[in-house]
User: Fold this.
Amino acid sequence: MVVAVSTSWVVDMAFAVFGMAAVLTGYRVFRTDSMVRASFWLLASFVNVGLILVLLNARFLGFSVVLMMAGEMSVMAIFMVMLMMNPAGLNPMTMVHQHRTSLAAGLLAFLALASVGVLVDFPDDPARVEPATVTAELGAEELGDSMLVFQTAGATLLATMIGSIAVTSRRGRYGDAEQGSVPPPLRPEADPADGEGAA
Amino acid sequence: MEALRLDRRLRIVDSPRHATVLLVAGALPATLHRPVALVHDALAHPRATVWWGDGEPDLDWLRDCPRAGGDGDVAATVGAVHGDLMLGRRASDLPVLTATTRTPWEGVGPYGHGGSGMTGGTPHGRPLAERADDLRDGLALDVLPLTVGPFFPAFPAGLALRVSLQGDVITEVEMLADPFLADSADPPRRTHTFDRARTDAVGLAELERARVSHHLRALSRSLRTQGLGALATRVLGAAVAERPPTDAVRRLLVTVERTGLGRAGAGVGILTEASVVGRGLGLLARASGAAQDARDDDPAYAGLAFQPITQVAGDARARLLQRIAEIRQSLSLAERAGDRVRQPGPALEDPRVGATAVSELLGDLLVGAEWGDAVTTIVSLDLAMGRRPPAAVGAEAA
Amino acid sequence: MPAWLAAPPTVAFALAAGVVVAACLDAAVGDVVAHRVPRWSSVVRPWRQAAVVALQRRTSSERPDRQAWALAPALLLGLAAVMLTVVPLAPGVAVADVPHGIVLYGAAAATVLIPAFLQGWSPNSALAMIGGYRMFAQGLSSMIPFALVLIAAALPAQSLAVGEIVASQQGLWNVVRTPLGLPVYLATVPALAFWGPLATPAGRDLAGGIDLEAAGAQLLTWRVAQAGVLVGMSAVGASVFLGGWAGPLLPGPVWVVLKTVALLAALVAMSHLVARVRIERFVVLAWVGLLPLALLDVFLTGWWLL
Assistant:
């Protein structure tokens, strides 16, 4: 990769390979017959996108995409297994529904994006600067003055996630959560939730 | 049987897939004929079987196997067979079960799953997963019915359970087969010290050393289950040694304690005191807090300041701590016993507790536990009972 | 020879040498713990076992996912190789001395989950599948503290390049400068490499778990790849926390190798002396204990730098 970035035709070739692989593996997501396999095809697609980012000299973003997606697709696969029928893939199942609608929507979206790619006149300005600068410039371009807001929002989201996990935890400071779900008595001395309390 | 683990020429593996030689020891009861055939067929090629025992094997396909006599050097036989196999001087065993007897459903149905449509057929007796209420958090997950045993490496040989799993949480348990009772055809070669003590006078020191040996074996199995194979081998070595130096055993126990072995059993498989009292469970009862020990009333122990040790928690960790404490106690008793002799008559504190008494409790113990905890619990109960079981193990000469 | 041609054989050699050292260490430490007289056969035994496994034919289970099963060991081996590429032997001498080496390493370590899960899931066998789930549970729990301590170690260098991180430790190693880093790292590596006390995905209570159905060349590759991941994680740990090539008298690369072997020996000793940790207990420990510790490590390092 160190070499590839400096040689134009290698970059072009690599881009073509990763791009096609990303589309093909993305296609496989819908052609496979189990949820777990679908998750991993999606991961393969994301890894190829990450490699394209590396080619664009945004290595930090590229590596981060792989790092994050490995974790995320694992979570997705395990949730699929938890919540869907037929976890082990012993009996295959189809990954698509509403065939016609989704086919039309997918085709339309592809054509729209492709026409943008072909018709728009992109500036020719190769990223030949230091990769660290690319990431910084990209961040400044995307967020600009809102950087602090986004950073704060990120920290807030993290705190929210930790908080919601803490709230749903079975073990709390007032004991087992299942015991907390008993309705309180209506009379002061009655036992919680016994029939007499309501009388 | 267990002593084979000490032989450096052999490496006993957990999965039949990793073995080259299947060692069938002793005569097998009829209920195990199919399970042992399944284990045999699960071995990767090239494979061979060695039959270990006296007399004639009761299975047809075992008759032509290489044999090791009951007193012979079984490791050498296995090693020779393994060598021939690896050098191509010996053909690999053919499957015992035919394709139709093994997987009668295979090839039937659109996906070979044994029926028509998505839900047809029950491959290997497993119906399509269906949801069931969850015990823990109300999340309804698929149930996975599974038969484990009778040759599951972490279980005592012969124990077979039918469990229903949600994720790895057990929702139902049914015991299909006990650990080996007296189903073995050939009699034990040497009468166990505790069997002798029921009828004959036995030296107290010898009796306590036999107790130490029994508990060390159980400890070795616990260690092996928790992934400490090398230390387990060392503990087993101390257990089978004729008279292991007391100090060495004490140091070994300290090493065992330092591994944090108990952690795996904290809060796992709790036997309440009420459930164990009066069942003759010996060590298991004492680990739950019941101070019952037949040695307390045994005149042979009078004057040795014998005090039953107890734990409070009753979980797998307490049973482990109890075992270690009782090994120390027995070592000390054996040292102080001198040439005292125990006369038969009073109730004998036999460390080999009855598995039948425990098996009634097993359902309550295991339901709701995670699979790993369930295995820790079963190992901590020490259901092996010290009998000489006929068993099949996968072995590979190293 | 151009650098990019020399890279693959160099990585392959480092990987092979590391795996052999790991196997011999494991056999030798096992003998010491078992109180058996260490013999020369201890060094030969891993080779013999490998030969036996290689001679066995692959087995199949009932309706396995063959592609995923074949992919798993190859992918794991590839990830181990990626880990080794970022390790610098001397200033500027690494196969991939990329500016974001530590992120690349983090991505490789996180991706280890995938082949480990596939190894358990593909055979379509219940106990192996539970092993795969366990890998997810422990891997996802330990990944964040693992990444955080690496970031904390990169803070003083003000760079994500592993070479820069090593160079920044010439005066004071990170093991002293960020004292929480190495302990948290050593607590999470067994979880990600499913090793020692956290070899729960391949535990004996699952009769081998993710290894249960594997045999022959597949199993051999898998075991080699797992050892390779362990070597890669030790090598990066030696660079990031133990000062890499820094050391008196001996040349730099020798120090890198020595420190890697030292960490490897610590991990091997751990596998023989520390009992398995319950998966539920570890998950709680990771979220409630290791994660705050790792965050504290980041904050303390930042405070120290200010």
About this structure: Chain B has a mean pLDDT of 76. Chain B has twelve helices and eleven strands. Chain B has two domains: 2-97+393-397, 193-382. The CA atoms of residues 98 and 104 of chain B lie 9 Å apart.
